[in-house]
């Protein structure tokens, strides 16, 4: 099919096929190998730099050699669709999801965790929805800051390091948000708080209703303790600017 | 309307690392020679709340020009018109008149997508490529509703199928697309070493009336006959000499220092911006030269 293309495009395809896979694809006919090598290098290094900048922990944890192989596979196998440099790490996540390579079981979760910081900081300035700051947190639907997400992972992604590679799964719940100074912050949540906030973010129940449901689920002998704990968490989140107030 | 009077003098490529230093020296003599700044839309579109606050600060104080990296004018993938719409909004949002791109490509339509490779790859200098690229430049100009500039790109590997020189290719594209020239002085020098031609002869052959502004930068010498356009070193003397030659030949045009790697402190970087301004002061202003009227007619 490429035979029908103009010769300059046939040449371009041979050139980029080589760049994507320099170990297996030949240098295009009559191109000086030393000069081709410049492109093999600059394209790969540029990509490596963009990807590595977003995933410093993943890179260190799986080690330099494994990381280089992974980025080589990214260049070889993935077709990136965004011209925006900030979105290259997102392309890398997509590549990881579809890759048939044998990856460390925690790698996808870890990379997602590292990427979410970039993602939140890249969101535009979001208008805060109007909220009543003096409302009753227990009995009225809550308004959350728009630049936040609730995250659940199978691994304790926030504790992974070269010295701490998880061997077993450990369900982990995090709240990530961007504060008024554009700083992205993470808060570790216990499973109950995660459930509570997930229910409240849906906006369909009040905190009181949600906490009664949770106490029921837990068959807690003293639901009042759950209630106090839950409302304490919400006050704390309000002080941190994550809960803006109530809807009315 | 595109009007080069929006920018003049010397400029500096805006890197995030430099922003706090520029902001803290605002209105101080140290940076008084920065007359305009340049950004890559690919680094600033959808870049978040902090970035847009920074851009607002600059837009209120400096003319901004946009120099794109990923439009892939010579690429085999369809022109990314969704992206161009974003560029258009971005230019309007920050009141930016000038948008330039490289005469190169960075996509290969791999797996039926754009296939971005995020680097500047050399288009073979063929007749078919001239028509192809010129048509895509025209399409870009139609979408943006303005004339764009294209930059003579640095390259390292000659295509054996090329039918003409780089200069002939550049001129043919400029003429067929009827666009502006973003003249990169360092790229002329880099290519002249990499492909053994006379940089001054190249300079003499360009259509000077199309120059919108120019770039100057440092490069890395990998071997005596191979220079890599890293923007990571100081500008070398032969490149300064070539800029001076260009001013002597064509009169003064706006010139911007690119420094993308190995970025020194602002006061060190300013020595090179100041040097641009010095060369401009020493040269003949373009407006006093007889053939600048061609430029005005191009712009209208």
How are helices and strands ordered from N to C of chain A? HHHHHHEEEEHHHE
Considering residues with a beta carbon less than 8 A from a beta carbon on another chain, report the largest interface and each chain's count: A-B, 46 and 47 residues
Shape of chain B: globular
Radius of gyration of chain A: 24 Å
* Rounded radius of gyration of chain B (Å): 18 Å
Low-confidence stretches of chain B: 1-5, 290-300
The computed structural class of chain B is alpha/beta
CATH architecture annotation name of chain B: Alpha-Beta Barrel
Query: What is the structural class of chain A?
Result: mainly alpha
Question: How much strand of chain A?
Answer: 5-15%
Specify the helix fraction band of chain B.
Answer: 25-40%
Q: State the fourth-level CATH superfamily of chain B.
A: Divalent-metal-dependent TIM barrel enzymes
Total domain count of chain A: 2
Number of domains of chain B: 1
Q: How much helical structure, as a percent, in the residues of chain A? A: 40-55%
CATH class of chain B: Alpha Beta
What does this entry look like structurally?
The complex is a heterodimer of chains A (248) and B (300). In chain A, strand 3 and strand 4 form a beta hairpin. The mean pLDDT of chain A is 95. In chain A, the strands form two sheets. In chain A, strands 2-3-4 form a three-stranded antiparallel sheet. Chain A has a two-stranded antiparallel ribbon with strand order 1-5. With 248 residues, chain A is mainly α. Chain A is elongated and about 80 Å long. Chain A folds into two domains: 2-103, DNA polymerase, domain 1, CATH 1.10.150; 142-246, Outer Surface Protein A, domain 3 (Alpha-Beta Complex). Chain A starts with 6 loop residues before the first helix and ends with a strand. Chain A is 50% helix and 10% strand. Chain A has helices spanning 7-20, 33-54, 56-62, 64-77, 88-98, 107-122, 191-201, 207-218, 223-239; strands at residues 142-144, 148-153, 172-178, 184-189, 243-246. Chain B is globular and about 50 Å long. With 300 residues, chain B is α/β, with parallel strands linked by helices. The longest helix of chain B has 18 residues, at 127-144. Chain B has one domain: TIM Barrel, CATH 3.20.20.150. Chain B has helices at residues 19-24, 41-44, 49-59, 81-93, 127-144, 166-177, 185-194, 199-204, 237-250, 266-282, 293-299; strands at residues 10-13, 34-39, 64-67, 99-102, 105-107, 116-121, 149-151, 180-184, 211-217, 220-223, 226-228, 255-258. The interface between A and B is large, with 46 and 47 residues.
